[in-house]
Amino acid sequence: MAETDVCVMIPTLDEAATIGDVIDEFRDLGYENVLVADGGSSDGTREIAEDRGARVFVQSGSGKGQAVREALRRVDAEYVLMLDGDGTYRPADAEALLEPLREGRASHVIGDRFAEMHPDAMSGLNRFGNGIINSAFGVVHHRDLGDILSGYRAFTTESVERLDLVADGFGIETELSVECVRHGIDTEVVPIHYDPRPDGSETNLHPFRDGATIMLTLYRLAKMNNPLFYYGSIGVTAILAGMLVATWVAYRYFVVGISHEVMAMLSGFGVLLGVQLLMFGVLSDMVVTLHREQRQRLERIAARDDDEE
After folding, report:
1. For 84-122, what is each residue's pLDDT tens digit?
2. Contacts of range 57-65, beta carbons closer than 8 Å, 24 or more positions apart
3. Bridge partners (DSSP) listed for residue 80
4. Contact call for residues 37 and 55 (beta carbons, < 8 A)
């Protein structure tokens, strides 16, 4: 039976070795609406995808995040399945991802790769990096979403329209997770399989560079969702730096007998700046909390009005 209410969205870059099989498997399962956002492949990826019946377009910019944003503007279905075209995700897991959406339990579903991961699917370094990023997400945003870097997701088009997505590269998954928390979108995590890349398929991921980008994205987005952590961390750093300079100035004055008035002023400025940032973080956190509570109250009123109608 054709799944007419689902659009399978696949961002690609030089995935000729795998994209054909991925599209074929989805179409065999009844998912005929396949949209491929290509990042300028030079290995025939676009031609293979078109031959297999997918809608294909070339993104105007570069990076996975840009591809996802442009693809979302072309989606014409109620639900979206998003995954990479490298053959590491199984189309057979699609129904498990869509089930919470169709039953109304969630508006965004993340596939947890670590639940059924093949031993050779991820290097030890990447496993360690994923663990660090997931732990940092939990600390900063107070939610455990299992695997925030998973590229296999399902969501409603209505929910994704509420998100402010600006990331260009591999930070898009992190941004999706943070935005879901910030906007109070019901999110569920389901176990999926994660397989090694097939022979002949090369990864576009650069662990250190992209890992640093993801961590910076996670920290940057904390400004809107957890301002106390964002401004507080900068404030504490400024206070510690000011106190360190003050300690050096005091040592030079009382032990060596040399005064450093300018450095003393800088240390005082650092401590004062840090205290102000901490205060600003506390006030911003109060505003964010009040805004979130007000939004939830309005959503409950809107839902109640819809039920009465």
Report:
1. 999 999 999 999 999 999 999 999 999 999 999 999 888
2. 61/168, 62/168, 63/39, 63/167, 63/168, 63/169, 63/170, 64/11, 64/13, 64/39, 64/168, 64/169, 64/170, 64/172, 65/165, 65/166, 65/167, 65/168, 65/169, 65/170, 65/171, 65/172, 65/175
3. 7, 155
4. no
